[in-house]
């Protein structure tokens, strides 16, 4: 598992039972090992356990923390994200990973009909932790600096440029919309 500190939620898959031996705060089911707690995955001599390295991370994962997130999956009401704290983003190897959910109600104050008009799979977004519960971490992008930082064309997957306030595919010219971050780099041309 290298240097990356993976944070898991109760019920989250850790590894196949042929790869590791379940230790503290884990259980095996159908030849797979899962976490039974919210914490950091640690592995020593093939034995995995879930817990906290008292000082390092527990204080870090808190409401308000800024994250950069990759959009893994989008439904009409939710986006599922893999996130790294902004403060860790420039440190290679030691960054922690947080799985989070962006609910459609945390895009802006007004009604949003469909999450898929706001973020798309593969986009990179900036968000803040809104809620930490046993069921998971919820984030919000309801702030001017939060939202999509890098968008990818849903037709051809090329990067999209921000030109005169519109997102335009650098490859096929398709125009799309997003909940944009004010920090999205503007194309000069
Ligand atoms: Zn395109």
Would you write up a description of this structure?
There is one protein chain. The chain is mainly beta and 189 residues long. Among the domains are: 5-51, RNA polymerase II/Efflux pump adaptor protein, barrel-sandwich hybrid domain (OB fold (Dihydrolipoamide Acetyltransferase, E2P)); 66-147, OB fold (Dihydrolipoamide Acetyltransferase, E2P) (Beta Barrel). It has strands at 5-8, 13-16, 21-22, 26-29, 32-35, 39-44, 47-51, 66-74, 78-85, 96-103, 124-133, 136-140, 147-150, 160-163, 166-169, 175-176. The strands form three sheets. It has a five-stranded mixed β-barrel with strand order 8-9-10-12-11. The chain has a three-stranded antiparallel sheet with strand order 2-5-4, with no helix packed on it. The structure holds zinc ion (ZN). The site of zinc ion has 8 residues, from loops.
């Amino acid at each position: 598992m290298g240097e990356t500190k993976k944070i898991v939620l109760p019920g989250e898959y850790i590894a196949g039972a042929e790869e590791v031996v379940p230790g503290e705060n884990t259980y095996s089911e159908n030849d797979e090992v899962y976490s039974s707690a919210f914490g950091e995955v640690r592995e020593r001599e093939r034995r995995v356990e879930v817990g906290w390295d008292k000082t390092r991370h527990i204080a870090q994962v808190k409401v308000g923390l800024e994250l950069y997130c990759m959009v893994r999956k989008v439904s009409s009401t939710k986006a599922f994200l893999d996130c790294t704290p902004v403060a860790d983003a420039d440190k290679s190897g030691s960054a922690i990973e947080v799985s989070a959910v962006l609910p459609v109600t945390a895009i802006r104050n007004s009604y949003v009909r469909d999450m898929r008009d706001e973020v798309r799979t593969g986009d990179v977004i900036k968000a803040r932790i809104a809620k930490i519960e046993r069921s998971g971490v919820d984030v919000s992008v309801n702030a001017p600096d939060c939202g999509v930082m890098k968008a990818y064309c849903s037709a051809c997957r090329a990067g999209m440029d921000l030109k005169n306030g519109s997102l335009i595919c650098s490859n096929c010219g398709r125009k799309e919309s997003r909940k944009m971050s004010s920090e999205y780099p503007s194309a000069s041309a």
